[in-house]
Structures are given as structure tokens and as C-alpha cells.
Amino acid sequence: MSNVLSEEKKQQVIALGKLGWSLRRIQQATGVCRETASAYLKAAGVEVYRPGWGRRAPAKPAIQVTPGFNAAFSPKPAIRSACEAYRELIEQGLALGRNSKAIWQDLVSEHGFAGSYQTVKRFVRKLRGPRIREAAGIILTAPGEEAQVDYGSARWCVIRRAASTAGRGCSC
């Protein structure tokens, strides 16, 4: 009957388990295999935890409620943009119909602006406000009534269907 622990070892394993020791630590201290220690602890009603999984301290109850707790977390004050010093130049660029990329390039090359393009882009969006998308007209016509022409620079190619060119593509 060598696979049954002595009463002394059994009580030692249960006592260490009640102290919250891990199975690995119990094995190192007593020499009893983790699986055996786990079986004895479960039989004694001691909860066995897997190492690393779900081992959190229980939540502590609130001792006192602090009124106005959210006041400490008020929004941060607005940070001044690096573009604020160049506001007039940016507004002039917008009045001329320039986009934010062109305005940023002018600021960097002509006025020594050290900020990034993204900074200018955000500032321009704030100045412009939300863009309202314009409606596009839809033309409804019967098939063959109207045509669309693209004045590109492509060559015209006429494919002849003769016996000599059968199976080949354009011979232009």
C-alpha cells in the first residue's frame, strides 16, 4: 500500500493548500506529486487553482463614497495648435482655393514652419468646418439615345475577321 500517503503527509498537504500554496510549491516542499496533492485537497474541500489562471485577489469593498468624484476627471484644457501663429496665412491660402497640402508646402518653404502636414490638415479642417457633399445629377435616358465620348489618346484598331487572322488579336 505504497500509493497512499501517510496521515502526517496528508495533513501537511491539506494545511499548505489551506494557506494558499500552489500545487507546484506543495510538491517542492513535501515531495508529493501535484496530481496526488490536488486529489487530497479536493477531497478535503480545499479549492485548487491552476497557476496563473484566474488568480486574482477578491475585490475590496468601497470604504467611503466621495461626492463629486467625476470633477477630478474634467476634460483637459485645449492645447494651442502650432498653426495658430500662421492663421492669417492659412486663411489667405484657403481664400485662394488652395488645399491643405499646398498651404503646408508654402508654410514650410516660405515661412519656416516646423510642424507636420497632419497638423496643418487638422487645422484647415477646423477652419473649414464640416464639408457638405453636393448632390450629383443622374441622367436617365433610353438605351442608344445618348452617348459618352472620351477624348483620350488611344489608337483605333479595326479587327478583320478573315481566315488568315482567325484566332489572332489586333494586328495594328
Chart the SSEs and their pairings.
Layout: H1 7-18, H2 23-30, H3 34-43, H4 87-95, H5 100-111, H6 117-128
Helix pairs in contact: 2-3, 4-5, 5-6
Please state the overall shape, judged from the principal axes of the Cα atoms.
Answer: elongated
Radius of gyration: 40 Å
Q: What is the rounded distance between the termini?
A: 98 Å
Tally the beta strands: 0
Quaternary structure: single chain
Q: Kindly name the structural category.
A: mainly alpha
**Number of helices, counting only DSSP H or I runs of 4 residues or more:** 6
Give start-end ranges of low-pLDDT stretches: none
Question: In words, what does this structure look like?
Answer:
This protein is an all-alpha fold and 172 residues long. Among the domains are: 7-43; 84-128. Helices cover 37% and strands 0% of the residues. The protein contains 6 helices and no strands. The protein is elongated. The mean pLDDT is 79.
